[in-house]
Amino acid sequence: MITVHHLENSRSQRILWLLEELGLPYEIKRYARDRTTMLAPPELRAVHPLGKSPVIADDELVVAESGAIVEYLADRYGDGRLLAAPATPERRRQTYWLHYAEGSAMPPLLLKLVFQRVGRAPAPFFARPIVRDVAAKAQRGFVDPQIATHLDYMEGELGKAAWFAGEAFSVADIQLSFPLEAAAARGGLTDARWPRLSAFLDRIHAMPAYRRAIERGGDYRLG
């Protein structure tokens, strides 16, 4: 039995979605974020030294990192579903997007979250305007333009085919769901400027397996 160590409002939601798409039985071990820091609880360190989520246990094998988990599950259990055959153009694009989602798309979105929290964090009265000004300038001058650049890029790529890696829905789309949902929640993703990305989110949110994953995983908010 596969166990998903599932942190609320986190990347592990897309692992539940993949498991639902593959029709695999699994159990969920839930973890709540610290309500002050919003960090994962220390109990996750007993599962993996970094104390991060997602992590899955498949019998004695423990796998961490979203991209590695997605590739492992699709490769071992997919039976040709959601993951293209090796050495094909579709597989190369899927591999690219699996790495791009966390390696390129997520860093500016994480910086956005950090600077938003810095701008709202308690500070001495005399320092508060300075802290907020620095946080706002960092967002306007660097973070927001970087997010827009990535959204423009993904918008263009999604215009080449029905899904990110080609005409078939794949692991690439599952992996990219998290940065795009984060962008919709806090990165300025709007229908008017990025209509294909907005339509992509509408499509995946209507998919039965996605909805089952939300029901099993619980409330999912990235704002």
UniProtKB/TrEMBL annotation:
Organism: Dyella lutea
Protein name: Glutathione S-transferase
Domain GST C-terminal: 87-223
InterPro entries noted in UniProt: Glutathione-S-Trfase_C-like (IPR010987), Glutathione-S-Trfase_C_sf (IPR036282), Glutathione_S-Trfase (IPR040079), Glutathione_S-Trfase_N (IPR004045), GST_C (IPR004046), Thioredoxin-like_sf (IPR036249)
Domain GST N-terminal positions: 1-81
Transmembrane segments: none
Family annotation (Pfam families): GST_C (PF00043), GST_N_2 (PF13409)
